[in-house]
């Protein structure tokens, strides 16, 4: 039954998008986990969703690993309002360079495909929540 409901919701979201109901952005409702982005889908994700937080990280980065569970929690809490994405800077140096990433973790808040704010370093969940709230 769960699987059928997921399929039904997905089809409804696709239909809503086709009729141009962009204000509600129903597709975001389904995104309750960080999306892995890379050179092949980065720009597409930014265009598809109104509010996107991109976590620029690397496997070897301990502060990145520390905030990973926080990013997962925030993705669940803000599902429908903000989509969270993770971009591995070692695997995607051109995108990291495009946004001037010199330290990681860096989180950039994008609105309608444009960067509007960023934070650098591992911050506590409460501070990240305040940052997200300021930018919604």
From TrEMBL:
UniProt xrefs under CDD domains: TRX_family (cd02947)
Gene3D superfamilies for the chain: Glutaredoxin (3.40.30.10)
Keywords, comma-separated and alphabetical: Disulfide bond, Electron transport, Redox-active center, Transport
Residue ranges annotated for the Thioredoxin domain, each copy included: 17-136
PROSITE patterns assigned to the protein according to its UniProt record, in alphabetical order: THIOREDOXIN_2
NCBIfam families: thioredoxin
The protein's name in its UniProt record: Thioredoxin
Organism from which the protein derives: Geoglobus acetivorans
């Amino acid at each position: 039954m769960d699987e059928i409901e997921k399929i039904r919701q997905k089809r409804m979201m696709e239909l809503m998008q086709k009729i141009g109901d962009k204000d509600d952005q129903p597709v975001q409702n389904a995104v309750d986990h960080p999306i892995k982005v890379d050179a092949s889908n980065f720009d597409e994700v930014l265009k598809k969703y109104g509010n996107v937080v991109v976590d620029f990280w690397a496997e070897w980065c301990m502060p990145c690993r520390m905030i990973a569970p926080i990013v997962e929690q925030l993705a669940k809490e803000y599902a429908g309002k903000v989509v969270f994405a993770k971009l591995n800077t070692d695997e995607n140096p051109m995108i990291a360079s495009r946004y001037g990433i010199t330290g990681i973790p860096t989180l950039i808040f994008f609105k309608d495909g444009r960067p509007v704010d960023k934070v650098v370093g591992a911050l506590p969940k409460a501070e990240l929540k305040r940052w997200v709230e300021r930018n919604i």
